[in-house]
Amino acid sequence: MMDKKQISSVIEAVIKDTDIFLVETEVRPGNNIRIYIDSPGGVTIEECAKISRIIEAGLDREIEDFELEVSSPGLNAPLKVIPQYLKNIGREVEVIKNDGIRLSGKLIQTDAKGIMLEIRKKISGTKEKSDKSSVSSEYVSFSDIKSTRVQIIF
């Protein structure tokens, strides 16, 4: 089986001088390699194909055969690295904490240790016709996050 660290180092060398960042490298049985990349503006199919060709040239099929797939993580994939959180500031996210608590709100900030959410809660029981809501902020450290997904709102 191919070495994930070796593959990741080849990828990092390929994307070093670009705004593209590595989200995840998977090496599955049968040397099925899946590489997920992203950038602040998203990645195109052409960029994925170009990076795939360069990575393939950096790995030696003579030593070990492999299958390679390079793509973006997809719309409903969980966020895994800080650059993804930075890319999605201002968007609605759902956070599932390690203790099972779900938080939904706008991602308003991220740093090396965690994220800040703006959470809106509807206030019920008011006699006025307009919907009232309260707004609060909650900081969640990465060590407390099981998964974070961007909410697709139509």
Q: Largest sheet at a glance?
A: 5 strands, antiparallel
- Topology, number of strands: 8
The averaged pLDDT comes out at 91
Radius of gyration: 20 Å
Strand content: 35-45%
Q: How helix-rich are the residues, as a percent range? A: 10-25%
CATH topology of the largest domain: SH3 type barrels
Query: Which CATH architecture of the largest domain?
Result: Roll
Give unreliable regions as ranges.
none
CATH class of the largest domain: Mainly Beta
> Which structural category fits the helices and strands?
alpha+beta
Number of domains: 2
Q: How far apart lie the N and C ends? A: 43 Å
Query: Helix segment count?
Result: 3
Task: Describe it.
The longest helix has 14 residues. Helix 1 packs across helix 2. The mean pLDDT is 91. The chain is elongated, with a radius of gyration of 20 Å. The N and C termini lie far apart (43 Å). It folds into two domains: 68 residues, 2-Layer Sandwich (GMP Synthetase, Chain A, domain 3); 69 residues, SH3 type barrels (Roll), CATH 2.30.30.100. The strands form two sheets. The protein has a five-stranded antiparallel beta sheet with strand order 7-6-5-4-8. A three-stranded mixed beta sheet has the order 1-2-3. It is built from three helices and eight strands; from the N terminus they run H-E-E-H-E-H-E-E-E-E-E. With 154 residues, it is of the alpha+beta class. The relative contact order is 0.14.
